[in-house]
Amino acid sequence: MKSIGAIAIVLFTIVALRTGVAQALDVDWKLYGGDTTGGISFCFYDANGVVRGPEDHIRVWIKCLSQKDMESIELSKNSVDKSVKKLGAGYVPPIVVAGKMNFDQIVDITASEEIANTGLVKPQASIFYELSCSERSLRELSIHVHANGKSGSSEKPSDWKYVLPEGNAATLLKILCHA
Fold first, then answer.
1. Cβ pair 128, 141 in contact under 8 A
2. Interval 99-108: pLDDT, tens
3. How far apart are CA 101 and CA 94, in angstroms?
4. What is the mean pLDDT of residues 162-169?
5. Whole-number pLDDT of residue 25
6. Do residues 125 and 149 make contact, with C-beta atoms less than 8 angstroms apart?
7. Element (H, E) at 174
């Protein structure tokens, strides 16, 4: 009887991974930047997981995915339909606050966000940030990095760092703090 249950769990996991159901756990990854350290990657924040706290503080998970790994993913018909429906309804990615973008760029960003939502690409980095909107600073509460076959992590909160006026952190602050 235990083996039937185990087989059922394995089959469900395989089906979930192939259909993207594994990430249907109410995440909504939104592109906010990129990184070129160790290859090109795109960074996303979980819009549904944003927690607004006291003193204008925000906590949010981010993940950075390799462009190469993302390009290897073929979106399902359901994901393509979701993207088309969003765009047809006038969806504008939050990263647009960082600068003007044409329609083709918005289409590409929307597709990238759908790929991030599938959970089929292993993150190069996953970081739980705490942002201080009023102080324009941030700190890492938890960090997990996977690069070049090596992994590392820390659950110790870092010191607060002031955010430069340009770059990924500035864009994330601009999007989440409505600055």
1. yes
2. 888 999 999 9
3. 11
4. 95
5. 62
6. no
7. helix 168-177
Interatomic CA distance for residues 44 and 107, integer angstroms: 16
Residue of 91, 79, 146, 153 whose CA lies nearest to 116: 79
Q: Of the spans 16-20, 22-26, 99-103, 123-127, which averages the highest pLDDT?
A: 123-127
* 10: Cβ contacts below 8 Å, ≥ 6 apart: none
What is the maximum span of the chain, computed from C-alpha positions, in angstroms? Answer: 60
Could you give the domains of the chain? 26-177 (2.40.128)
DSSP string, 59-111: EEEEEEEEHHHHHTPPPPHHHHHHHHHHHHTT---GGGGGS---HHHHHHHHH
Alpha-carbon gap, residue 157 to 141, rounded angstroms = 4
Q: Which two tokens stand for residue 59?
A: 């906590």
pTM of the model: 0.83
- For residues 118 and 29, give the distance between their C-alpha atoms in angstroms, rounded to a whole number: 10
